[in-house]
Design a protein that fits this description.
heterodimer, A: about 180 residues, mainly alpha, Butyryl-CoA Dehydrogenase, subunit A, domain 3, 8 helices, about 0% strand, globular, B: about 170 residues, about 70% helix
Chain lengths: ~180, ~170
């Protein structure tokens, strides 16, 4: 099998090494956060899911094999975290609405741009794995093979998933 | 690349680049969070509370039983009191007289019933466990092995005094 080199793969990491995991965190945090912002409802949730991703990754850090692309592995965990979060989102939404009542208007915040973006809102309406495939492809620049590694599915599945995601995105955006 | 794909890329970079350029926060430490979750949330919390409650109730029951028997809160005193009682009973025997069973059992029966009460509170409905067996072992060595003492006398501590008097008479005609 042809080796895959994602941006984080340019560096070498030793499984189980505390220092290497900290380096991995520094090198990949922004990319994982960028993916999760398009998958979960807001930035605060995305940050929480990002931390949860690294907690899960840390628990399995000793068993990670260096021949597997580490950033794809992290993205796989992140997508699973996002799926779990979406499942629980409906339960939380009622309580969240109550907490937001009376809260002063937020100041200028880059995350508001994302939260108010029609595209990001449309992505959040797609199935999590479809939205993830679009973000990995069009924001991170992954190839289908890299996306397949991240989603743990065959490349053919990625191609069909991307096609379905684009079609559904057009429908959501009304184009 | 289609128009949609190009637009998708531009829009994603427009909205996500400013966010991902922000400083990277410190990594959350998993140990502290896991420990807090285990103690404060979910089934772990319920189990922790149950275990702690059970231990506290058992400790309180044993303490109350021991204190009620010996008048002391120190468990070491309870064993010393039994030893002292045996010594006292032996000292009270007249020359040629055998058997301190009734004397010791009057003390042991108090301890036994208190221990049984504690065991019942702790879920052992029998209440006739090791504490009672220990008392038997301590009382028996002084009992004559001649066979004249009916077996099973210790099973009814309330009758000990009267029964023992009868035994003493029959063993020394």
């Amino acid at each position: 099998m042809e080796s895959i080199e994602l941006p984080a793969e340019r560096e070498r990491y030793e499984p189980g090494s505390e220092a290497d995991f900290e380096r991995l965190y520094r090198n990949t945090y922004r990319r994982i956060l960028g993916t999760l912002i398009t998958l979960v409802r807001d930035r605060a949730t995305a940050e929480d899911c990002t931390q949860e991703t690294y907690e899960r990754a840390y628990r399995n850090w000793r068993s990670w094999r260096p021949d597997a692309p580490v950033e794809a592995w992290l993205h796989r965990i992140a997508i699973n975290v996002a799926i779990s979060d979406r499942r629980h989102q409906q339960l939380r939404s009622a309580g969240e609405m109550i907490r937001r009542l009376g809260r002063p208007a937020a100041g200028p915040d880059p995350s508001l741009i994302a939260e108010n973006s029609d595209l990001v809102q449309a992505l959040k309406k797609l199935p999590t794995k479809q939205a993830a495939a679009l973000v990995l492809r069009h924001y991170h620049g992954y190839t289908n093979r890299e996306i397949a590694a991240a989603l743990n599915v065959p490349e053919q599945t990625v191609a069909s998933r991307l096609g379905a995601a684009r079609k559904q995105l057009q429908a959501v955006l009304g184009r | 690349m289609s128009d949609l794909e190009r637009e998708l890329e531009q829009e994603l970079h427009r909205v996500l680049d400013p966010i991902t350029a922000l400083p990277i926060p410190a990594r959350r430490q998993p140990e502290a969070r896991r420990a807090a979750r285990a103690l404060l949330g979910g089934a772990g919390a319920a189990l922790t509370v149950k275990v702690l409650t059970g231990v506290a109730v058992a400790a309180a029951a044993v303490t109350v039983a021991g204190a009620a028997t010996t008048g002391s809160l120190n468990p070491a005193d309870w064993g010393q009191q039994v030893t002292q009682q045996v010594a006292d009973c032996k000292a009270q025997l007249a020359d040629g007289q055998h058997g301190i069973g009734a004397c010791v059992s009057s003390f042991a029966s108090q301890h036994g019933s208190a221990a049984a009460s504690a065991a019942r509170q702790h879920g052992n409905g029998n209440g006739n466990g090791n504490a009672h067996a220990k008392d038997k072992n301590k009382a028996h060595p002084a009992t004559p092995k001649s066979g004249s003492v009916p077996r099973g006398l210790d099973s009814e501590p309330g009758d000990q005094a009267a029964t023992h008097r009868t035994v003493t008479i029959t063993s020394h005609p």
